[in-house]
Each structure stands twice: as C-alpha cells, then as structure tokens.
Predict the 3D structure of the following.
Amino acid sequence: MANKMLSVAQNEFIKHIRKPTFWLAVFGMPLLIAVVGFFSQSNNNNRSGFAVPGLGDPAKINEDILSGELKIGFVDESGVIKGIPSSFDPQTASLYIQYPDVAQGLAAMEKTDIPALYVIPSDYLATGKVQRYSNQVNPFGDSLQSSLVELLLSTSLYPDNGSSYAFLLQQPTTQLKVEGPDGPINKATNEGERMQSAFLLGMGLALLLYISIFSSANLLLQSLIEEKENRVIEVMLSSLRPRSLLQGKILGLGLLGLVQVAIWIAMGALITGQGAALGSMMANVEISLGAWLLALISFVLGYAMYASLMAGIGAVANTMRESSQLTVIVGLPIIIPLMFISVIIEQPNGGLTTGLSLFPLTAPVVLTIRSVLTSVPLWQVGLSVGLMIVTVIGLQFVTARMFRASTLLRGSKASFGAMWQALRQPE
Amino acid sequence: MAMLNVVDVKKSFAGTQAVRGVSFNVEPGELFGVLGPNGAGKTTTIRMILDILRPDSGSIEVLGGPMDESKKNRIGYLPEERGLYRNLKVIDCMVYLATLKGIERNEARKRASAYLERVELGHVAQKKVSELSKGMQQKVQFGTTILHEPDIVIIDEPFEALDPVNTRMVKDLLFDIRREGRAVLMCTHQMHLIEEMCDRIVMFNRGEIVLNGTLRDVRRRFAPNAVWVEGNGSFDNLPGIESVQTENGQVQLNLQAGTSPQSVFQALASRGDTTIDRFEVAIPSLDDIFVRVVNGERGQ
C-alpha cells in the first residue's frame, strides 16, 4: 500500500508545483520583502542616525551609556590591555571596569555591578578567544557588550585604527570569538553567542515550521476541499485506505513546502548577501551534532503533527472559509514558545520551559532551543520525542476516521455527532 | 463463487436507518441492476461494498471474502457524482487514478491512450479535464473505472449526459465486461436500459430491497392477468373476461381467474365481425413496476 501512498504524494507534489500560483507565491514573497526592505532602507538612510549591524540602534546605546547602565567588566590575563587607551573619549572609557582576577570579577557580577564578565585568557594572542560570564540573557545587548570588548582589544592591539565608540559605530569590527568556560563555574555559563544562536535557531525553526505548515496546510486544505467538491475523494477512498491518502498528501505537500522554504532561504541569502555571514555565525557557535539532529527530528515531527491537524480540518470543513478560523486556532501553539522566549532562554531547565518542551504542540520549537542552550536530560528528550510520535499517530488515527466520515461524502456541515460516529468506526 | 455477496446489511446515520437488512448477490458474467427512488439506500449500500462506509451489522463478501486493500484493485467504481481532477490533463488524471489501482505508471499510460482512442477521445488526451464537454468527461470517468480491468464494475448512472451514440459505446464496453466473465453492478433510473441490459435486478425502497430476481420473474409478479388488444369490432361479452378498459385505442381485457390468454384469443378469432391488429399478454414495464413499488405495492 506504500506505493499508493507514494503515488498520492507524487501527484500532490507535481500537481501543485506545476501551478503558476505556486511559483507566484515562491518568487512573489521574497520580492515583496525585498521591495519593502529597499524602501525601509532608503528611509533609514535619510535619517540623521544609522543602525550598526550587530550593535542595534545607536540612540538606544547612547541612552544606556548616558544612564550608566552599560558597564563592561573584564579580566586581562594576557597582558594585551595596558589600561584603557588614552585615545578613548571619557564617556567610552567610563564603560570599562577592569578586575585583577576572575574571582573578583565574578563577585562583582554576582553583586550585579556588571552584567557580564569578559576574561581575556593568557593565550588570547594565540587563540583569539575570549571567555564571557553572565547571569543575564539579552541576546542583542550581549552582542553590544562583546563588540565593545572587541573595540578595547583592537584599539589596544592596533592603536592607530580608531579610538572610540564613535569609531565602532562608523566601522563595525569583525565578530569577536567568545567562548564559554569549561570547568566548574557552570552556573554562570550562559554565553551570549550561544544565547543568540539558540534564540535565532528557535525563532528560525518556529518560522520555518510556521511557514512550511501554513503554506503546505493551505495547499492541503485546498486540495481536500477541491476533492470533496468534485467528488474525487469518493473515487480515491474506493482505491486506498484513508490513512494512506492522508499520509500521501502530507508527504507530497510537505516536500513542496520544504522546496518553497528552501528557495526562500536561498533567495533571501542571495538578496541580502547574508549567506556567508550566516554561515560564519553558525560556524562560530558550537552546536552539537545531537542538537542539530534533535532539531531535525523536531521539525519533521512538528510538521507531521500540524499537517495532520490541518488535514483533520480539511476533512470536516467544506469550504476554505469554514476552515480558515480553525486553521488560525490550530496554528496558535507554534507561537506560544515565541511569547515565552525570554523565559525559555533564561531558564532552559525551568518548569515552564520543561513543560513546554514536553507538550507535543510546543515541543518542536522549545526542545530545539533547550538542546542548544543546555544539556537536556535524556529522559526528557526521550519523553518529548515519544509524546510527539504518539501525538502524530493519534492525530492520524483520528483524521483518517474523519476522512471516512459520512460528512465527508455528504457535503453537509460536520456535526459533533457525525464526528463521534466516525471516530467509533474502525478504520 | 459469487463476485459479491451482501447479507443482511444495516446502516444508520444519526438515528436514521438508511439501509435495513439488505441482502443480494452478484454472479460472475452478470449484469446486475440496482433500482430505487432517490434516498432509498442504493448509494449507501454501494459505499459499504466499496469499504468507504462500514455497515453497522451484516456482512459483505467481495470476490469470496471480506474486502481488503488488494481487492480494492479488483473493483472499478463510477460514482453518481463524478470525480475527476478538473485542472489535470485527461491522460494524467487517468494515469494517476489507475496507479491508485495498482497499475504501473507506463502501463497505465498505454491503457489510457488505447481507451481514449477506442472511445474517440484520443485528440483530447493532452487537454485539461475542465475543457471537455460533460459527455466527454463522462467517457473519461468511465475509462478510469475500467482501465485496471476490474473483476467487478460498480457504476452509478453510467449513461448520464451521453448521447445515443456514446450510450451505445458504453453499453458495448459493459457487454464486453460481461462476456469476459466479470460482473457489473449498475444503478440507474433509466429503466429501458435496465430492461435492455440487465440479467437480474434488485429494487430498493426506504432502505429495503422490495424486489429481487430476474427481469422476467419480476415482471410476471406484477403482470395483471390481462391481455392487450388492438383492432376493429366489439371486444365485449367475451367468455372469461372480468372487465374491459380502453385507453388510447388499446383495449385491456382483464381475465377472470382460470382464464388463459389463448382461450380469449380463440374466442376473438372466431368472431366474424372483429379484426385483430395486435394481441399481447399484458406485461408491465419496469417503469410501471417502479412506480407501483414506490407506491407500496409488492406484487404477487
């Protein structure tokens, strides 16, 4: 029966990829974003200020500096920094606090005198790596702090290049290699770069899931409703099991969704020229193979779960209008992790985060973020993946019965009674 | 071995009993007619045979046993409400539906092309289904029903939208299937086609089978024990005649119990003042029987 399922998948893929509307969506969306981005950029360039990649809004940075909130604590074990460079203007110079050793630096950090401590190790000149300790998480703020440390280092090493925060704004430097320490101080190991990558990976996964699911789900709904309207589905169900039909559609349209997303990512990278930067950023971040693997598993299971839900909607709804409201409700759980993103990043092993990583509908995103941020207990990974698999099977079990439901064939509105009757029928 | 054996099958929807203990069987090489008014339970029964719906009770045996996935490949189904992908090319649509019946893609393409040529639609193979006339779509749909050479063909209103030439074409295809020892179960409201084509029939009414048998048996059961006569002269005062009815120049002589049509014919022939143009034992049409059954009559 697998052949029939693959036939359905192949047909769905080919049928939709040949449609001009598909290609319109594939190329129209990036084009639209590019146009909006172009006008937005033009608008920005006309302003008096400007944004610096990696540093954020200069107005906000100035605000932080003036209010004295921004302090950079560091310990120099390498001897590279011979005091704050004289070329720094007083305002920039006042940002830095040097500590004689790591212990005192960490103590200051614990007292919240400084948000983070940078340790320039004795082998810095050989490795180019700096350790960063922090109890707070602010992905974008961390980037600013790291850049200011880099300014201090680069000015100390190459005094002729520039001398102040103004230089940094005008000429953003290359990425600082920041590493978390190995060893006993695990309590304070929330490295900024790792935070950022976790944040970006989580966001990326959530967006990828959302876009894949909703672009594919829309096609799935259209396909199902079209088949219900023109009665092809009755012929289909006389040829193969509802579950094979469902799985074939999910597979075919899922692949189509992935093609769409892959093209978008490639076009986005080309248009913005960020492909290399993205690659470089990811290369700088140590994400274990296991975490990548878990992200992939989470994506596949997440897609299978949501696509099954969408197919269920398609089975009970007769028109796109009927289905649209349900689609939004069903898509909500994907957004929940984004609503709690700061809690998830700050407390990757906290109760809420753990709960969200175990709840199947939020697990794909949250489990991925956790696996990047922290070492997730194996039993939790197993339980989370297990629950997702059970949910996929359960949803397909229910949806396959919905396909068989008499409402599917009668064109009438799905009543709870009819759905209940369908569920009680053997597949 | 019966191709299809339906035994005491029942099905309800939300408290409404759509099918009430239906039983019948279809034999190899048989063209089997299913009649009944709208909402009588015919389509629900067909869907249960095809495993699209599950019966609440009773049993359905297909090709000697319960329905399974492999047997779905041996059944062809033409639903009353047609199902084709309107935006696909005719050939692609036929090939896809054939692959769902277990036919390999290249083989399906060959068969589809051959079929389209046979039904004079070779020139539309690359056109979209939506560009075809209703009659053409009907022939394409019929093709998808038989392309995989099924052992059982289940067709609901197969002649809808077809002109007489195309009706003849489809009839010939169905006769071929019967000749090859396969079975056809046909639902239609076109009684003359049932009369012309079917070996046996069942008639549904309100979820039950109210008639079941060969056409000859069914007609006899509803025969009024009368003769129809056309001619000149008087048809009154004949021995063994209970009453005389005249309609549109045709006289119906209703016979008393025990009177044979032959004795009436002899009595008429012996009358010097009466000429006979037509003499026929009164056999009701299927149309008549249908109306009478729907109105509650069960026959003798």
